[in-house]
Every structure is written in C-alpha cells, then in structure tokens.
Amino acid sequence: MEIILIPIIAALVTAGLGKRSNVWISTLLSLIPLAVLYTYFTRFGVDNGWKTIFDLTWISENIRFTLGFDGLTGMLLLLTNLMVPVIVMAGIRDDENRVKLTALTLFMQGALNGVFMAQDGLMFYIFWELALIPIYFITLTMSGENAFKITLRFFLYTFIGSLAMLASLLYLFLHTANYSFSFEALRAVELSRIESIWVGAGILLAFVVKIPLLPFHSWQADTYTHSPAAGSMLLSGIMLKMGLYGLLRWYLPLAPESIEFFQPWIIGLSVAGVLYGALIAIRQKDMKRLIAFSSLSHVALIAAGIFTLTAEGLEGGVLQMFVHGVNVIGLFLVVELIEKSTGTRLLGELGGLAKSNRSFMIFFMLLALGTVAVPFTNGFPGEFMLLKAVYMYNPNMSLLAGLTIIFCAVYIFRMVQFSMFGEGKHEVLSLKWNEYVAFGILSIAVLLIGFVPQLFVDVVHSSILQIVTWVSEAKGVLS
Amino acid sequence: MIALFITFFAAVVLLFLGLNKKESSFSNLAVVALMASSICSFCNAKGLCNFAILESWVPANMMLFGYSEHMFASLLAFVAAVIVFAFRKNDNLGTDQLGLIMFSLCGAFMMISYQHIVMLFLGIEVLSIPLYVLAGSKKDSLASNEASLKYFLMGAFSTGIFLLGTAFIYGGTGSLELEMMGIKPSFMHAMEGMPIATLINAGLILMSVGLLFKVAAAPFHFWAPDVYEGSPNRTTVFMATIVKITAFVAFNKLLSTFGGIHNTWSGWLCVLGMITIVWGNLAGLVQNGVKRTLAFSSIAHAGYLVMFLLILDESKTWILWYYGFAYALASVLVFLIAHQSATDKNPVGFDMFNGLSKRSPWVAFALVVGVLSMAGIPISAGFDAKFYLFSFAWQSSPWLVGLGLLGSAISIGYYFKFIKHAFLVKVDGDETAVEYNDKGLMMLIAALLLLAGAMPWVLLKWVF
Amino acid sequence: MNLLSIFNQVEISHYIYLSTVLFSIGLFGVLFRRNAIILLMCIELMLNAVNLLFTAFSTYMGDADGQIFVFFIMVVAAAEAAVGLAILVLVYRNTRKTDVSFLDQLKG
Amino acid sequence: MLTLMIFLPLIGFLINGLVGRFLPKNVSGWLGTAAVLGSFILAVMNFNALTAEAGQLESIHQKLFTFLHVGSLHVDFAFQFDRLSAVMTLIITGIGTLIHMYSIAYMHEDDGLYKFFAYLNLFIFNMLVLVLGSNYMMLFFGWEGVGLCSYLLIGFWYKNVDFGKAARKAFVMNRIGDLGLLLGLFLIYSTYGTFEYQDLFSRVFTGTDASSNVNTAIALLLFIGAMGKSAQIPLYTWLPDAMAGPTPVSALIHAATMVTAGIYLVIRSEAIYALSPFANEIVMWIGLSTSILAALIGLKQNDIKKVLAYSTVSQLGLMFIALGCGAYTAALFHVITHAFFKALLFLGSGSVIHGMHHEQDIRQMGGLRKKMPITYLTFLIGTLAITGFPFLSGFFSKDEILMSAFAHNKLVFGLALMSAGITGFYMFRMFFVTFHGTYRNHHHAYEKVHESPLLMTLPLLVLAVLSVIGGAVNLPHYLGEGISGGLHHLLSFDGGGQFSPILIYPEHAIELSHTAEIALLAMAVSVFVIAFLYTRNKYVVKGSVPEADADQQGMGKVLANKFYVDEAYDMAFVAPLESASDVITEYVDEKALKSAVDGVGTGGYGLSKLLSKIQNGNIEYYLLYMVIGISLLLAFNLF
C-alpha cells in the first residue's frame, strides 16, 4: 500500500510546493518507493507465488482492495520505480510546466504501482484508468497544436479498450460464486470455449490497444511525438508494459480456453507489427517518431513471445519488458537532451554531436546498442529468447520476426549517424549532474542485464511457472 | 411523508411571507426547510424518529412511504437544497419561484410514493406545472418563453397520452391501485368483449411514453435540449436531476407492478434504451452549447438507467439511488460551474471555460471531477454508479450493457470538451473571483463525489 | 327503460373505439394545427376522450375509481389550461404571434 | 589463466574507454598493446599446457556462470580452449599485438587514439569470446561483438559521412548473416537440445537425433552467417567498403581475424557439415564463385586498399573451397598463412599511405621502393607469399587447397587455379605500380615521402619473416612424413574423451601420386610465373599506368565498377525497401489505418450532425416524432 500512497502524496506535495520544489526534492520523493520496494523484495520474496500483502474491504465484502506481490509484480515495480526517478530527474524540462509534469509523473507512479499490484479485477481496472488520467493531461496540455485531436484519439482508443476489458471482467464477476472480483474467484469461473473467446477478446482488446499491436496502434506515434519527453517516456517505457503485464497476469489465467483461438492471430499480428514498425522506422526523420515505431516493433515481439506460451517466450518477454523500458526511456531522454540543446530533433538538421560531448555519445551508443540487441547489452538475452520462442512456435514466423534484427540495426544506426556523426552543425551539448546520474542508472541497467540476465530471469521464474501452471491446468496441454 | 409536509408548508409560507421581498433574502429559509425534509426523511427511514400520525392521514392505498421511498425523498430533498443553495443569488422580486420549486418537489414526493395511479397522475402534474412556469420565468427572454411553451405543449400532450394509457390499463385490469393492478388481469378475463391483453399492452406502452417523456428517453426526448437551453439554469438543473430521478423511481414502480408480464414490455423498452444511449451520446458530440451538451448527456444517462428498469429486483433499488446520487451531484456541480462561468459575452458556449485552470484552479479541479464522474471514470462516484448498474443489468439486458459501455466511450468525446476548454485553451485574463461559499460548495460536492467513488461501500452500507 | 341499461347495451368495445377516435382527432389536431390555442383545445379534446373512456370503464366495471379520476383530470386540465394560456400570453407579448411554428430559436 | 587471457583486452578496453582521454597518447597505445601482448603470452602458455608432452589435454574448459537458464534453454558463460581455439587465439593475439604496436605510430596524430585502442581491445576481446566460447551462444556473442567493433572502427573517423555509411553497410550485411546464424542456432537447439560443443557434437556423432535434411538446413543456415562475416557472395560487398576504416583495422579485422570467423564456424561445425554433402557443395561453389569474382574485380581497382580487400575476399573464397572439399586442415592452414601475409600487406599499404600522407590511389604513387626500402622489401615478400612463390607460406597452403580441390572435382580445381592465377596479376600490378616506375603525384613532393618509423616497420619485418616460414605449420607430405602435416596432427589429436578431436571425420584422403602432385605444383608455379612476367612487362618495362576508373572501357569498366553489384543491390533491395517504407508510412499508416480510425470518428460526427439537424427546433416536428415513436411501439407490440 505504501508504494502506491507515497508517490501520490509526493505528487500532492510537489503540487503544493509549486515553484518552490526543485529537481532535488522531486527526485528524492520519487526514490522513496524504491526503498519500499526493496523491503518488499526482502519481506515477501519472489518464490512464493502471488501472495496477498494487503487486504481491505472496499466496494463490497467481496470486491476488496487487495494487493499482491511476486516476482513478476516485483519486476515491473522495479521498472516503474527505477525509471520514474530517471524521468523526474532528467526528463522534465525546467519550464513553466515542470511542477505540473512532475506532480503528474509522481501520481502516475502511484497508479502504475497499483496496476501492477492489484489482485482484484475491479481494482486493476480502476488503477488502469487512473494511470491513464495523468498521461491524458500531459498530452492534452503540453503537446502543442494538435493536442486535442491526438489526445482524443489516444483516449478513445484506450478507453474503448478498457471498456471492453471491463465488460469481460464484469461477465466473469457475474459468474463468480459470491459476486467477487478477486483474482482467484475470477479465475475459478468455468467458461465454455465460446464464452472464453468472448471474454478473452474483451480483455485482449484493452491490452492490444495499450501494447499496441498492429492495427490498434494509430494513437501511438502522434502521442509520442507531440508529448513532452516525460510523457513519451512514461507512455512507452512503463505504460505499454501495463498491456503486456495484463496479458500475462490477467488474460492468460482468466481466459485460458481462448488462448488456442487467439494464439495464431496475436502472433501473426505481432510478427506483422514487428516488421511494420521496423519498416516505417527506417525512413522516419523525426527522432521521436522513429523511436515510437521502433518501440512498436520491439513490443510486438514481446507480445508474440508471450503468446507462444513457452518458458523462453514468457520469461524472455518479461525480461524484455524491463529492457525495453530502460532502452526506450533512455532513447527518449537522448532525444530530449538533443532537442533541448539544439532546438530540433529532425535527423536532417542534426549532425556531429559526437564531437561536442563524448560522454553523451557513449551513453547514446550504449542505449542504441541495447536497442539493436548486441550481445552483452540488455537487448540481447530477451530478444534471443523471444525469437527462439517464436521459432519454437513456427520457424517461418521467426524468420520474419528475425528480420527485425537487421532493420533495427538499419534505423538505429541511421539515427546515430545522422545525429551524432558527420560534420558538427550544432555547438554544445552539455550534461548536468542529474542527467549524468540518469544516464548512469540507465547504462548500468543496460550492461548489467546484458551480462547477467539470469539474475533478472530468476526473479520472475516462479511467477511465470505459476502462470503456466494455471494455464495448463485449464487447458490440460501446454508445451 | 414528513418530507412532503415540511416542503409543502415551507412552500406555502415562503409564497406568502416573501411576497414583496427579494428572493435571495429567503433562500436560506428554503434551504433549511429542504435540509430538514431530507434529514427527517433519512431519520424516518432509519427508524430514528417516527411520524406515524402523518402517515395515518393518507390512506396506504394512495401513498406509502417505505424505507426506499424515504431514502429517495431524502436524496431528492437534499439535491433540491443543494440546488437552491447553489443558485441562491437570484434577485427575483418575490419568493414565488422558490415556492414553485418546492411545490414541484412535493409532486416528486408524490410520484415516488404513489400506490394509486391517481396519485401518480397528480404527482406528475404537480411536478410539471410549476416547472412549466419556472421554465418561462425569465419573462423577457424569448428563449425562456419558447422553452416554456415547448415544454408545456409537449408536456400536456404527453399527459394526454399517459392518461389514455391509464384508461386502457384501467380497462384491462379493472383497478387503479398498484396492488390490485398486478393481480387483476386474470380475474377480469371473465368479462365479455374486453381485449384485455391488448388493453394492458397498449396501456402500458402509452403510460410508459408519458414517463419516458419525463425522463427524456428517445424518441420522446426532443423537448429536453431546447428546454434545458432556454430555461434558467436553476430550472434546468432541477429538470435534469430531480425530475429524472423521480420519474425513474415512479416508472420502476409501475413496471414492477407488471413484472409478471415483463416479456411483453422488456423488449421494446430495451430497444428504446439502446436508441436513447446512442442518440444521446452521438448527438451530444456536435453541440456547441454547454447546456445543450449536458442535456444530451442527461438523455444518455436516461438510456443507461433504462437498464435499471429491466433488472426488476426490488432489492436492487439502491442502485438507482446511488446512480441518482452520483448523477445529480455531478450535474449540479457542472451546471453550477457553468452558471458561474457564463459571461455576458458568452452565456452558452464552451468558451466560457477557457483558461479556467489558470483563472481559478480549484474550480477547474471541481469541474474535472464533475465531468469525469458523469463520464464514469474511476475513482469518481459516477464510475461506481455505472459499475453497479451495468454489472447488475448484465443478466437481464446484456446488449444494452454492451451499448452502454460503447456509449460511455462515445460520451468521452463531449465530456472532453469541458476539460479541453478549461485546461487547454489559454486566455489572458485575471483570476475570476469566485465567492468562497460557492467555491466551498463546489469543493464539497467534488469531495463527496470522490469519497463516494473511492469508498462506495461505506456510503451504501450507511444508506441501505 | 333505464337509461343505464341503454348504456349497458352498447358494447364496451364501442366506447373504446369511440374514445380512441376522439383521442385521435385531438392528436391529429395537435399535429397539424399551428395555432397554440387550437393546440390547447385539441389537447383538451384528447383529455376528454380519456374521460369518456374512464367513465365507460367505470360504469361497466362498477368501480368508482375511474369516475373519481375523471374529476381529477378535469381539475388538472383546467390548471394546465390556465398555466398554458398564461405562457401563451407571455409569448404573445414578446413575439406578437401565437403560431408555434415560429418558435424555433432553440434547436440543434 | 584462461579467463585472464580473455579478459585482459576487456580490461584494456575499460581503462582506455573510461579514462583514456586523460592519458597521454603513448600511454594509451602501449596500454592497449600490453593488454593484447599479455593475452598472447598467456595464450602461448595455455597452448603449451594443452600440448605439453606429458599429459596432453583435449581442451581446457572453464565455466564462469550461467548466462541464461530458462525452460529448456540453458546457456553457460563458459570457455573452451581446445586446439582449434588455440590456433585461432594465437593468430588473434599474436597478429593483434603486432598491429596494436603498429597503430601506436600509425595513429599518433589522431586525437581519438585512446578510443581507437579501446575499440581494438574490445575487438580482441570479442574475437576471443568468439573462438574460445564453449558453445554456440558464446560464439554468437563474439560474432555480434566483432561485428559491432567492426562497425565502430570502420566509422572511426565519424566526421566523414561516407565512412559512416560504409560502417553501417558492414553492420547491416553482417546482421543479415547473423539472422541466418541465429536461425541455425535455433534449429540446432530444437534438434539437439544443447549449444555446448562437446555435448552437441557427440550427439551429432552418434547420429540418431536428426535426419540429414535437418543437418543440411543447419549447415546452410550457419553458412549464411559465415557468408556475412567472411564476405562471400552475396554478402561480400561490405568488405571493400570497410576499407574506410584506418588501415590497421583493415589489417586486423578485415584481413587477419574477423573475416576468418566464418571459416572458424564451419570448421567448428565440421561434425554437422560432414553429414551434409549438399551443404558442402554449396559452400564450395559459393567459395569458388566469390573467389573468382573478387579476383576479377581486383584486377581493375586503383585504390591500394581496395585491391587488398578484394584479394581478401578472393582468398576467403579459396578457403571455403577447401572447406567444401572437406579439407578442413587446408582451410585453417590458409587462414593462418593468409593472416600473416595479408596483415603484412595491409600494414605495408598502411606504411605507404602513411608515407604518402593519406594518399591511397596507386596511380598517384610509383617508385616508392627507394624512399621506403623496408616497406618495399616486406611488401615484396607479402606479395610473393600471396601469389604462391614457391616455398613461401602461401605456396604451401594454397597448393594444399588446390590439391584437395583436384581430388574432389577437376573442374573446381581448374577454376580455383584460375582464381589463384588472377591473384598474381592484380597483386603484381599493384606492387609494380606502387613501388616501381616513376613517382606520379604532383600534389605531394617526392622528397616528402618517407619511410615509416621503427614502430611500424618492426611489425612488418616480423610478419615478413612469418610469411616466409609460415608454411612450416603444415608442410605437405612430399617434403617428408616426419615434418609434414603439423596442423593436421594437432587438430585430429584424440585424447580419448567423450568427444575428442576437432576433426572427427577423416579428411578426404588426398591420395595423389607424387607425379600428379608435382604436375599440379608445376601448373601453379607456371601460372605464377606468367602473372609475374606479364605484369612486370606491362608496368615496369613499359611503364604504363592503370587507367582511371572513368576512362575504363568495355570489360574493364565493368570490373572497375565491381560488376555493378552495389548498384544492383541498391535497385533490388535498398530502393524497394525504402519505397516500401514510404508507401507503408504514407498510405497504410497515415491514410488507411489512421483514417479508418478517424473515419469512425468522422462517421460518428456525421451521424451526430444528422441527429442535430433532426432537432430542428420546430415543436410540430417534435410532436410528430413522438407520435411516430408511439405508433411504431404500438404497431410492433399489438399486431
């Protein structure tokens, strides 16, 4: 509970302090949950299944305020509470929006923590919506000209998805023995195959919009491009993971009978999305757009991996969620800093920044390499596992999905080339302490996961095992 | 019953007491009276006090105040009190409008507690006739006149329809008492030449039309946007909240009576609900006026509430109560802010909210809470209300629930406009001075909505 | 022959048809006339059709409720007419017209 | 010791990478060199331990930690020092040390010297991981890692946009190969369930796990990887472009070590290839065509490094021919000798370029032998070695390949011989034009041309010696059984373990009579002599100068333009891909998908407008709608 409340209180404090708060204070505030998370890990461990750590009567006796913790949750909490400080530290410009943006980011931290911990269907839904609200404000009030249209599209998309999910959850809720929304009760509902497909479709819709998978992605690029950096980072780095987390935590256990039906579709769409995003990214001129489509491509691969239902796919997927969060936040941070100092983020107008700041170059390169999934950077183990999982599902699919490793190299290095190399067009790009620290955290994450991925995989192992058990109990068969 | 008495006498007193004084000087009295009604009803429901002597004055087969009727009376009186307080700065000469509001409320009390169709009819009329007058109370405003005349003509017309239905039902069931109506049909089969089934079906449809007109359900909603727009704000809120809730309570009572033959009416009612949801939400999208938008929003909410009618479970009345509570408070809040924000230059359009977040951030916050509650976004009371409603309506009308969800999504389109103008459009201007009382009221309502949203179980346990 | 028995010889369905027809006349009047006063009159006609029906039912079933209801309807109709005319006067004062089709300021 | 050997270069990289910019240039350079030298010394020690007379070991195995253990996937971060790795390690660290040393002088003017050495060290580390990994995943780590370093080093002078482009081209082409390799790995895992060489090959060897089709598929997929890394058709075009990097890089990465990773991969996977004759044929023919194609193109190149690059591609092709013929020892032998003389040639060309102040066009050179005697001499040795001057290293290794080809297929032999012959033409052409004749550069005074410093010439001398005696590693049979076939014996050592030798299948016995062997030798030598005489006549005696690219006619033009392969690739892959990207962006993403989404919105708004028109303000209509509604309700429910 603390981990949800503290950021929200921090948000209020920040809003209350107004102009008097500064980066130091916000960063410190955003770091507190990390300490709390540490105590969670030590207190509850990651090998005991998804156990309840907080419980309170809420809407009714059986619709409770229940929080759970396990490795999967822990992993995503780690991502959230490690990355939000990075965003707060370095991703928010010191302009008139700073206070508002910081407060909203902190608020979102709380909401996201709630999403990842909720053990009650309705609570999950509510936190899911709650997490939407700050980002919706960020895009609405700080993304320039077309803000209204962009935000509306984004919001409608996600809202329709959420409603579909709510409908499915309601359906399950009404079929529980005692009108309970608890995860266990929802899971215990016996559905026929056709029911399961409908329920699954509803739940899936919310997640595929958020992930986003191929035809549901039109909100993404514009939202990323026009939001302030912190917004893009929150969205791509953490919020997308809500969708993937939802797949693992809510879709698979709740509608296992429908998996067989959706599996080819989702994997097909994902692989198509992998190529689609990569293809588009190749020619983008705006760095943010490029990253947006790159993200589309990378996340689709995670979805495909998860849907193969292999251990590699599931655990690789979780690892890659974390990794993608780190990388994409890092890249957006890079773009933000470039834009802040040069005033542009169009590749054609940039060049030669490598000369002006070596450290920046190194950080950028590390993050780029992580994204390209070069061995010993964080992208590699996850991508390897995911591609292997897809291969196990269907070798031809993995050939197609594997093309991403080529395309990704093309567009990422193209971005590096045109922004960093060549003759210098802009003079200085200097980093401040907070940006050094932020990049430091990101770089450590890149290398640490690159060298010892097993450390992170071990965290989620038993959770994934539990999910696999749930699914296989219901389906009777599983690879 | 107690609410009815207090309100009635207070209305009479106000009518005579303040004949030549400004209305604002007596609005506090009205608020006190309404709050007293509300509290007394609540206490009565909870058994904290007993006004048996009053009950005995009216035969139980005409009007009956049970637990839920008391609760609804309490809610309505409370909402009315809030409305009167919120719009208290009315410099009308004479307290006749306050009196009319309270008379109208008396009609509402009759409608929620009727046991006999006569009382329903009288309730409707007592509710409506003052409203016809109130709608036109801005005498020199053509819009107000038009609203008034439209409301009156259509209202009278629908009364005619309603009455024809009543007559048919009377013919079909042989009684006008609710209890008897429910059981009579079989008994009446004996009589020659009476197409009983047809009479009951037709009668029910026609009576429903009368009530659907009051709640503004499609295709009987056409009056609502025009009348909402033309009427003075206070009247509009009154119509949007109290009339709607009351009509639904009454409607529910009527339909419950015919619950045995629900297969004859649930079909078309469901279809009407669907049309209403779609129509209200879609048509709301292109509205430029704040009040018109809210009118369509209220139409859409009527559509959602049709789900409630189809649940047909006496024990689920609390859903309507909670929904009414959330909806009414949110409406009052948004209307109040719109009322406060309207300028001479721009009395109707969304531009009135421009830059509200800068001009007075707390008001903007309250606006967001109100609008999000209407839209049904967690953690506002509106969400919980919709949640209860949709989840319990699923069994009886799954398609309507599906459409309700879709409608909620569409509705974001226009609820969004409020936030857009309040937060996105920047204007250069000074802070708007909002009186502390008003600001306090807004924050209070917003807080209520949020608290009720975050902990609905606490509220419901307390109330039901 | 008792007057009542003459009534009784007429089948109840005839009353239903008659009042329905009367009601429809009123209804169509409302639909097709534009003068607000005539509209009011047509509505009165509708109400009176209902009154007739109530009375007939009441008589046939030997139940007094219906006839009592008729009184209420008449009272309310009178009140409505009074309010309606007052509103009409108000409108007339502002527009110099009693034609409802000109009242289309509020729309959309 | 093994771990230290591998990680020393990484330590060098870290020091140079993190604090290099605060160090003096010489310190940086020597630090980087020392790291590799240390590694080399340790490699020698390890090699001795492995082959010590008393108690020979098959391999030294060292597991550091579990890299990944998920589901059925288990990957150890582990090293295996066996005989094949040992040979590769010695080449990498040995030649690496020399080139590092050379670079200290070569790069001394560059501000980014520390960065250069950091990258070089990183490369060495990755290369060591590649050859020393105990499983295919480790190989893949190194494989990608060297690709990355190659990218970084080709684009080392990042201000030049073209260099950056070349670097990206190299990386992307390598990645295409990597995809093949990756899929190969997946197939290996799904077939045999392990990546560990020892387990895997013993499973392959017992031969019950998979059909030969699967093995063929694995072999071909792995070969795609090898194509990318070792610059074979169709993925060879990056290597000539990669010459954009500093010359030591070309010597180290694009001649001696990285590009031979493909050969290493195939040798390593001998167990699998041996089961698939079809895959071998493919390997051989690809190698053959690459070899000839590259040699032909090499004939008309005027950039000194480009000539060497095509020569490298051609030589790599030769090695693949050997692999395809099953002559694994011959291939590895050629890898070794090629590393010596090609590194020598590149460093020599670097010396020339250094002396000429970054002039690379041989048409601008001439008569350099007087000014740069040591370079001249060593370059001569290199040229002789590569062209197959008898009893130099290249002579032996190349002949072994030719003989195995002869034993395998006479046609292949003929073509391979042709390719080897062309080598002589372009190498001597370049050599004569550069060092003989008259000086032709008018921008840069002849007097200013200078011999390179000792730091650069010393590695040249060492490599020259190696190029001369390198053949001793694996002398042919006809020189006597006692001293011949050293490498082969080394590799086929059987320590009696679970899975012992590198080469578990006997090589196709080259059972040629001595007459045939000598006849073949004679053919090879005569081709060499013809090439030497022809080019000497043309460029030294007649003193003609190669035409500029633009002046080429007919076939020469085609050759100078490299058979228009780059242009063809542009047309066939790059342009369609880019236009596909544009089309998808504009039509699918913007127009179709977004407008589909927006269309729903627009449709909604349209409907909304319509509904709002219905609300026309006229009460007559409202009443009519109501009545219609009522009528419909009644009609549907009563009739």
Write the layout of secondary structure elements.
The complex is a heterotetramer of chains A (479), B (464), C (108) and D (639).
Chain A: H1 2-17, H2 23-44, E1 51-57, E2 64-69, H3 71-91, H4 98-117, H5 121-142, H6 147-175, H7 183-188, H8 193-210, H9 220-226, H10 229-254, H11 259-282, H12 287-308, H13 311-342, H14 353-356, H15 358-372, H16 379-393, H17 395-420, H18 433-451, H19 453-475
Antiparallel strand pairs in A: 1-2
Helix pairs in contact in A: 1-2, 1-4, 2-3, 3-4, 3-10, 3-13, 3-18, 3-19, 4-5, 4-10, 5-6, 5-10, 6-8, 6-9, 8-10, 9-10, 9-12, 10-12, 10-13, 10-19, 11-12, 11-17, 12-13, 12-16, 12-17, 13-15, 13-16, 13-18, 13-19, 15-17, 15-18, 16-17, 18-19
Chain B: H1 2-17, H2 27-46, H3 52-57, H4 67-86, H5 96-113, H6 117-135, H7 142-173, H8 178-188, H9 196-215, H10 223-230, H11 233-257, H12 262-285, H13 290-311, H14 317-341, H15 356-359, H16 361-375, H17 381-393, H18 398-424, H19 436-454, H20 456-463
Chain D: H1 2-19, H2 25-51, E1 59-70, E2 73-82, H3 83-106, H4 113-132, H5 136-154, H6 161-192, H7 197-206, H8 212-229, H9 238-241, H10 247-256, H11 261-268, H12 270-273, H13 277-298, H14 304-324, H15 328-355, H16 368-371, H17 373-387, H18 393-408, H19 410-435, H20 454-469, H21 486-491, H22 514-541, H23 554-560, H24 565-614, H25 619-638
Antiparallel strand pairs in D: 1-2
Helix pairs in contact in D: 1-2, 1-4, 2-3, 2-4, 3-4, 3-10, 3-15, 3-20, 4-5, 5-6, 5-10, 6-8, 8-11, 8-13, 10-15, 13-14, 13-19, 14-15, 14-18, 14-19, 15-17, 15-18, 15-20, 17-19, 17-20, 18-19, 19-22
Describe this structure in words.
The complex is a heterotetramer of chains A (479), B (464), C (108) and D (639). Chain A has one domain. Helix content of chain A is 77%, strand content 3%. Chain A contains 19 helices and 2 strands. In chain A, strands 1-2 form a two-stranded antiparallel sheet. In chain A, helix 3 packs antiparallel against helix 4, helix 6 runs antiparallel to helix 8 and helix 15 runs antiparallel to helix 17. In chain A, 68% of the residues are buried. The mean pLDDT of chain A is 88. About 1% of the residues of chain B have low confidence. Chain C is mainly α and 108 residues long. Helix content of chain C is 79%, strand content 0%. Chain C is built from 4 helices and no strands. In chain C, helix 2 runs antiparallel to helix 3 and helix 3 runs antiparallel to helix 4. Chain C starts with a helix and ends in a 13-residue tail after the last helix. The mean pLDDT of chain C is 88. Among the domains of chain D are: 226 residues, no CATH class; 72 residues. Chain D has a two-stranded antiparallel ribbon with strand order 1-2. In chain D, a hairpin with a 2-residue loop joins strand 1 and strand 2. In chain D, helix 4 runs antiparallel to helix 5, helix 5 packs antiparallel against helix 6 and helix 8 packs parallel to helix 13. The mean pLDDT of chain D is 84. The chains are: A mainly alpha (479), B mainly alpha (464), C mainly alpha (108), D mainly alpha (639). At the B-D interface, helix 7, helix 9, helix 10 and helix 12 of B face helix 24 and helix 25 of D.
